[in-house]
Request: fold
Amino acid sequence: MRPIVEFAGVTRIYGSRVALDDVHLELLPGELTFLVGPSGAGKTTLLKLINRELRPTSGRLWVAGLAAHTLKASRVAELRRRVGVVFQDYKLLPRLTALENVAFGLQAGDLRVSDEEARDRSQDALDAVGLGDRGDAFPHQLSGGQQQRVAVARAVVAQPPLLIADEPTGNLDQETAWEMMDLFEDIAAWGTSVLVATHNVAIVTRLQRRVLTLVHGRLVRDQPAGRTGRMAWLASS
Ligand SMILES: Nc1ncnc2c1ncn2[C@@H]1O[C@H](COP(=O)(O)OP(=O)(O)OP(=O)(O)O)[C@@H](O)[C@H]1O
Ligand SMILES: [Mg+2]
Reply:
């Protein structure tokens, strides 16, 4: 199976601060992977490199078949169409309904999608996240967990091979966080590679998925799915 993401000796330096240090990793299709580590370890930096919000200082990385380290600015949109993104604070547009938020994401990524097709596909995506009957609601009329579901629908509506999420349950209570993780497991089961940066120890420990641990920018541990050990970063946080 070809990896969806591949990092080969990736280093990212901000000024004189080394945020990521010689990281090597591969993510496979259909895999749900957690990215953990203390605050400042480099999790967000790693995700931003995948989405080409940042470029590596050195090293090479490939995302969904594209060489992100050499990608021309004119092809960044092509890369972003292949990467769904979910943030801690949902980032929905407040004046658009749930359905319009999802459709807007689809049409912004691909101008060839007609309004009718965007509406149909967005409705399907809302159905898939369990919000098929709330498409007309505005974000402020939805709970935090529901808003995050809309954000997930927006991230997957174009059926990208990769979904990245930065602290997606950071603003949710634990029960809602579990529901969100069920959703990520479903998305991975559909064949998407899902990478979730999180501080939610209970979830990471219980789900027994693959866990990547960053400490001071170094990938100190890559624990395969199905094995739970003592989480190295707890000792250092
Ligand atoms: N734009 C920036 N300019 C300078 N330093 C930065 C910048 N962004 C991040 N850093 C530094 O890079 C390091 C990694 O930060 P990053 O945001 O990737 O950590 P993180 O693991 O996501 O932390 P958290 O769990 O708090 O979100 C930190 O030392 C941080 O201060
Ligand atoms: Mg972060």
In short: The mean pLDDT is 94. The pocket of magnesium ion (ligand 2) is lined by residues 43-44, 166 (CB under 6 Å). Helices lie at 43-50, 76-81, 98-109, 115-128, 144-156, 174-189, 201-207, 232-236.
